[in-house]
Design brief:
Blueprint: H1 2-24, H2 26-50, H3 52-67, H4 70-102, H5 125-130, H6 137-143, H7 146-163, H8 168-188, H9 192-214, H10 216-240, H11 246-263, H12 266-280, H13 285-298, H14 301-317, H15 324-340, H16 347-358, H17 366-398
Length: 417
């Protein structure tokens, strides 16, 4: 919590410094951003990303080995995937409803004549599904292909569980590697406030107050939908399905949310997110490693909310009415695209391009929302990892292995499955 407090202070300071430079010394911002803000943020992001592959491999291998039973693993996987698909559909419905009521695209005059945007082509869904099996697991690690890495790690863990004592030494090595990685995470997080300051100062300073205020209604719709989804959907799931107090859940998960906000990367936040869920939310390591690693790859509730709001905003900016059939198409396309583009860089914008194309809206409209997307990305990343943690709590409770919160509110060691 002390670290979270320091990161929040750094974020506030970064907002103030970034806006001040943008408003009063714009000529100074460029050099300061180039030689101070961006390097601070990049160094911290690279340190966090450096641990993602070893964290996922070790955690999922150990988690799968801990679960052992293939039927149980399949059951946990089914619950996890079902949770992500349902919450993604609910997320985009919330965003569409809020955008249709508040009409952000009708709030001002937007120049749609001279804008352009070249959308990347998303791979076919079948290619993505077939691509889950790596032909070269080392290459998958080097390229950071998360779906392939998860598959290979789970296969290694399954082999360890089946061979038992024959590979006990391998399990011990992985457990020692896990201890080492957790120490490195703790060490690197000491630099988080500096990285958070650089990232937010760069983001706010580059956008400026004018750009933010011009898109204020659109940002308000996205932020409002993100807040509703977090409190109502995730809070409700934790309360009704996870049998835990939502206030306890959010209070204990704040450290990971703050890191996610500052980095705007679910993958970079994954080590901290898993550590927080295991130590503070009492989620067993085996379920946390599987559920949260998969969620960092395919759970895009925050992105789905952005898509829903952006689709309505772009349609209103172009003066196009969306029928009920078009809205249903948006929901279906966004849910399927959340899996189909899971392993593609820049998946959020690719998904938005797919959704716009599916309902006949101009893809060039993405250029209207690009200006503030970096700031909104920070918030929706925090929402995404919160959904991953909520899923881990719900799945753990359904399996009867979720640890009980301590009376004094200080988490004890998480029990193993």
């Amino acid at each position: 919590m002390k670290l979270a407090r320091n990161i929040i202070i750094a974020l506030i300071a970064g907002v103030i410094v970034g806006l001040a430079l943008n408003l009063f010394a714009p000529s100074v911002f460029g050099p300061v951003d180039t030689y101070l803000f961006s390097p601070l943020g990049t160094i911290f992001l690279n340190l966090m990303k450096m641990l993602v592959v070893p964290v996922v491999f070790v955690a999922i291998a150990l988690g799968t080995a801990g679960i052992g039973d293939p039927k149980k693993l399949g059951r946990i996987g089914g619950k996890t995937l079902g949770f992500f698909l349902i919450t993604t559909a609910v997320a985009i419905v919330i965003a569409l409803s809020l955008a249709l009521v508040l009409k952000p695209g009708a709030a001002g005059e937007f120049d749609t004549a001279g804008i352009s945007y070249e959308a990347q082509e998303a791979p076919p869904v079948m290619d993505t599904l077939l691509g889950i099996i790596p032909t070269n697991p080392i290459a998958a690690m080097a390229e950071g292909n998360m779906l392939q890495l998860i598959f290979f790690s789970a296969l290694v863990g399954f082999g360890i569980a089946m061979l038992g004592k024959k590979v006990e030494r391998v399990r011990e090595v992985l457990e020692q590697a896990n201890d080492l990685i957790m120490y490195l995470i703790t060490f690197i997080m000491k630099f988080a406030p500096y990285g958070a300051f650089g990232l937010i100062a760069s983001a706010v300073g580059s956008q400026g107050f004018d750009a933010i205020s011009a898109m204020g209604m659109y940002m308000g719709v996205v932020l409002g939908a993100l807040l509703i989804h977090t409190l109502v959907v995730y809070g409700g799931a934790v309360s009704l399905l996870g049998k835990r107090n939502p206030i306890w859940f959010f209070k204990n998960f704040i450290p990971a949310q703050v890191v996610a906000f500052s980095t705007a990367s679910s993958a970079a936040t994954l080590p901290v997110s898993m550590k927080t869920a295991q130590e503070r939310l009492k989620v067993p390591e085996s379920i946390s490693s599987f559920t949260q690693s998969l969620g960092a790859t395919i759970n895009m509730d925050g992105t789905a909310i952005m898509q829903g709001a952006a689709v309505v905003f772009i349609a209103q900016a172009y003066g196009i009415d969306l029928s009920m059939g078009a809205l249903l198409t948006v929901v279906l396309t966004a849910v399927l695209a959340s899996i189909g583009t899971a392993a593609v860089p820049g998946a959020g914008l690719i998904m938005l391009a797919m959704v716009l194309t599916s309902v006949g809206l101009p893809v060039e409209g993405i250029a209207l929302v690009l200006g503030v997307d970096r700031l909104l990305d920070m918030v929706r990343t925090a929402v995404n990892i919160t959904g991953d943690a909520a899923c881990a709590v719900v799945v753990s409770q359904s399996e009867g292995v979720l640890g009980e919160p301590d009376a004094d509110g200080v988490p004890a060691e998480t029990e193993a499955v």
